[in-house]
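Lab notebook, design round three. We kept the backbone fixed and only want residue identities now. Task for the bench partner: fill in a sequence for the structure below.
Input structure tokens:
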């Protein structure tokens, strides 16, 4: 019996419900055939095609127009009648491609009854009916409630987290959006800040593996869109919540001798408040979150072996205190049925204090020296957005005009003690950067009889002045000649068009985005290594999709798109960063974009209570961007520098299986197996002195498996457990070992459904240890990182 209970618990691990039906809106106009006069107050009804059963109906307005909403997928008869005219009937097919259909003009006559086929389409956001997008509601993610968005993502299909970075299908070139926009919180081209956004503020997450041309071309692995909560209920309402937790419940590995203790029993505090007032033409919303955490952010043990036989062991222990506050507020003003203005503002303030110790010892565990540091970093983000939407009289025909301004300040102070047997050096540096981004866009959507057409323009201007000041102490290791000022300037105008078509058996979509980029990175003339650099290009980024529907439950699709990864400012930043005494990270102003082509074949079959989705994909890149670790002849210091290393490939198979097994138990199983390859390359590293680095071709087959189930214990109690296995994988110049974690959560609805309690634990078995092997030119090292992954949280929320 005990074995059966344990087996049941393991099997009932987690289900992330990704299925949600989005219904169609149909619009059109009714006129008299000969005179083309409008016909008001005509009766328009829908009937099921196979049974002739009435579904819904409406009447044309004074202008002869009609709109019918909330139509599910299927075959219908559209019937139009009015006294004095013969009844008009048309067959309607509701597909799964577009949310809107404009059937144009229906003509009524006294003598002729025409029967035409009309296409109505819909969109399902599951593994979307187009199979290009997956949507997940965070309210269903019980085992990660109360944590950050980054933590919540690790249980989603296709997503893995490696060293704080998000990967899709084993690729970390991911663009992260908030409410469809790039922001400084998540980073322009990277994923900064995801670990500081409370999951409690988020409604859902969209994973877009095959973006269309309307999306920015950056991010070859795909797009993750994080959507904030916004209430649509009339009147005043809101939600308040509080979550508390503890992490690092015990030491997983003992410190090396004579350093400060590592964090244990680390507190987590997250109060949140959401308010909304909607009345008549005005909707006002507010979302506020505060997140305080203490974290054992890093606890890495490294053994480094050089070709001359030298062996050095070290530990890097980083205790981190973080305070993060986000405030988002705005106003929706609907002037009339066709015109809406939305203005919103977002503030993000982050304070990070890192206290770290990095002892170096020999093979006898005798200390060689100690590196001790304090990092004090303050990040401030302000974002203002204005969006005007005009709805034409035809449903679904839209004009959107938007403006977005982002300001992001990074103010970092870093102090470190270089404690040697004969002296103690006190060194520091200060970095200040102010990023400003201006985005302007115009987007137009026109529903067609057999699909829709989208087009638009976007203009981005981005400027980041940076200043790094070094303050040297006794026998300082700091390279003061690599400091000073630099400035990143970027202008990107883009134009896109996207056309989609659908009938009962075939779907097609074609799009093209033309993008011009002018990037300049200005370097102060006193820098000892780098000079000003930059690039510009005008490139096309096409996307295509063709699908064949065998029937309403089986579909096969073929995708193609071309995308780019533009180097981010941090990738080309010229200043050495001394987070690690003997591993110095430096950017490269000569870095160029990485262009990628993706081909994918997808198949989806569904049945009454489940579905199976499979995809074969192949991605090949030119100018692959990665960090290269090498040494020079003067010391054992390793310099990690971004470079373009040539061609790389990523091919794989992904499967997502979902099943409602019973009324109380549902299953989600996601598997992804892929092969990564980086071709042989030779690069020239300029910092700190010119040296050539070569590497042979690297190949590895890897993957991951996620078993997710939900158990409905009663009408008010749900339980969830998630099991994640990550297979060994390659890294630039090395490999990473397998990893495994198990998360558990339970929630209970109280106070007549207005309140909710939850309890969960991440990495329940404390098994998520990251082990890597790196092979450099003249050295190799192995590392094991015992950073905090196990956290227990208890939370409460109340809706009013």
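Proposed sequence:
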């Amino acid at each position: 019996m005990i074995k059966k209970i344990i087996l049941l618990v393991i099997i009932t691990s987690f289900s992330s419900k990704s299925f949600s039906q989005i219904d169609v809106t149909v619009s059109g106009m009714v006129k008299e055939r000969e005179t083309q006069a409008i016909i008001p107050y005509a009766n328009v009804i829908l009937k099921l095609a196979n049974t002739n059963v009435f579904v819904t109906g409406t009447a044309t307005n004074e202008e002869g127009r009609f709109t019918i909403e909330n139509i599910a997928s299927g075959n219908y008869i559209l019937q139009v009648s009015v006294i004095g005219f013969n009844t008009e009937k048309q067959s309607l097919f509701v597909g799964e491609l577009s949310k809107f259909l404009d059937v144009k003009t229906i003509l009524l006559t006294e003598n002729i009854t025409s029967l035409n086929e009309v296409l109505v389409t819909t969109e399902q956001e599951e593994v979307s009916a187009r199979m290009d997008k997956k949507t997940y509601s965070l309210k269903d993610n019980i085992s990660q409630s109360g944590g950050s968005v980054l933590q919540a993502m690790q249980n989603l299909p296709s997503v893995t987290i490696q060293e704080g970075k998000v990967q899709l299908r084993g690729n970390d070139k991911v663009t992260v959006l908030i409410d469809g926009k790039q922001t400084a919180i998540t980073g322009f081209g990277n994923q900064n800040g995801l670990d500081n956004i409370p999951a409690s503020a988020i409604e859902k997450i969209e994973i877009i593996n095959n973006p269309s041309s309307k999306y920015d071309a950056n991010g070859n692995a795909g797009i993750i869109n994080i959507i904030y909560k916004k209430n649509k209920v009339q009147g005043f309402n809101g939600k308040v919540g509080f979550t508390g937790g503890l992490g690092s419940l015990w030491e997983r590995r003992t410190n090396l001798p004579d350093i400060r203790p590592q964090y244990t029993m680390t507190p987590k505090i997250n109060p949140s408040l959401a308010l909304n007032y909607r009345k008549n033409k005005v909707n006002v919303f507010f979302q506020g979150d505060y997140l305080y955490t203490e974290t054992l952010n890093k606890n890495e043990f490294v053994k480094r072996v050089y070709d001359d036989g030298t062996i050095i062991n070290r530990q890097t222990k980083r205790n981190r205190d973080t305070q993060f506050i986000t405030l988002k507020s705005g106003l929706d003003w609907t002037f009339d049925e066709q015109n809406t203005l939305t203005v919103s503002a977002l503030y993000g303030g982050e304070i990070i204090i890192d206290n770290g110790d990095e002892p170096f010892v020999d093979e006898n565990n005798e200390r060689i020296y100690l590196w001790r540091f304090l990092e004090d970093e303050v990040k401030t983000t302000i974002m203002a957005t204005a969006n005007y939407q005009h709805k034409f009289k035809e449903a679904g025909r839209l004009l959107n005009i938007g403006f977005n301004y982002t300001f992001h300040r990074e103010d970092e102070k870093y102090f470190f003690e270089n404690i040697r047997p004969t002296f103690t050096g006190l060194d520091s540096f200060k970095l200040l950067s102010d990023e400003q981004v201006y985005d302007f866009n115009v987007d137009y959507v026109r529903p067609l009889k057999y699909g829709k057409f989208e087009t638009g323009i976007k203009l981005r201007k981005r400027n980041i002045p940076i200043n790094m000041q070094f303050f040297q102490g006794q026998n300082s290791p700091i390279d003061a000649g690599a400091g000073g000022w630099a400035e990143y300037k970027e202008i990107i105008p883009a134009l896109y068009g996207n056309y989609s078509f659908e009938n009962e058996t075939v779907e097609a979509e074609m799009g093209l985005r033309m993008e011009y980029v002018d990037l300049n990175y200005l370097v102060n003339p006193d820098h000892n290594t780098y000079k000003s650099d930059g690039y510009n290009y005008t490139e096309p980024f096409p996307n295509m999709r063709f699908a064949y529907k065998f029937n309403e439950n089986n579909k096969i699709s073929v995708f193609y798109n071309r995308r780019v990864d533009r180097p981010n400012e941090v990738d080309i930043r010229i200043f050495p960063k001394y987070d690690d005494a003997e591993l110095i990270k430096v950017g490269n102003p000569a870095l160029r974009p990485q262009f990628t082509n993706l081909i994918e074949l997808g198949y989806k079959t569904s049945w009454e209570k489940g579905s199976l989705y499979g995809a074969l994909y192949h991605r090949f890149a030119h100018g692959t961007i990665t960090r290269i670790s090498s040494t020079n002849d003067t010391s054992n210091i390793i310099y990690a520098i971004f470079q373009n290393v040539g061609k790389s490939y990523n091919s794989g198979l992904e499967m997502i299986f979902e099943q409602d097994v019973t009324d109380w138990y549902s299953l989600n199983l996601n598997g992804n197996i892929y092969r990564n390859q980086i071709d042989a390359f030779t690069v020239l590293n300029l910092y700190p002195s010119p040296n050539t680095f070569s590497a042979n071709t690297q190949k590895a087959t890897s993957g991951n498996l996620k078993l997710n189930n939900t158990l409905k214990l009663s009408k008010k109690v749900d339980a969830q457990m998630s099991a994640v296995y990550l297979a060994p994988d390659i890294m630039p110049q090395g490999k990473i070992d397998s990893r495994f974690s198990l998360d558990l959560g339970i929630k209970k609805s109280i106070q007549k459904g207005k309140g909710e309690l939850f309890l969960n634990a991440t990495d329940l078995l404390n098994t998520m240890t990251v082990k890597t092997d790196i092979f450099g030119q003249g050295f190799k090292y192995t590392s094991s990182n015992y950073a905090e992954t196990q956290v227990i949280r208890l939370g409460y929320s109340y809706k009013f």
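Keep this in mind before ordering anything: The CA atoms of residues 236 and 474 lie 63 Å apart.
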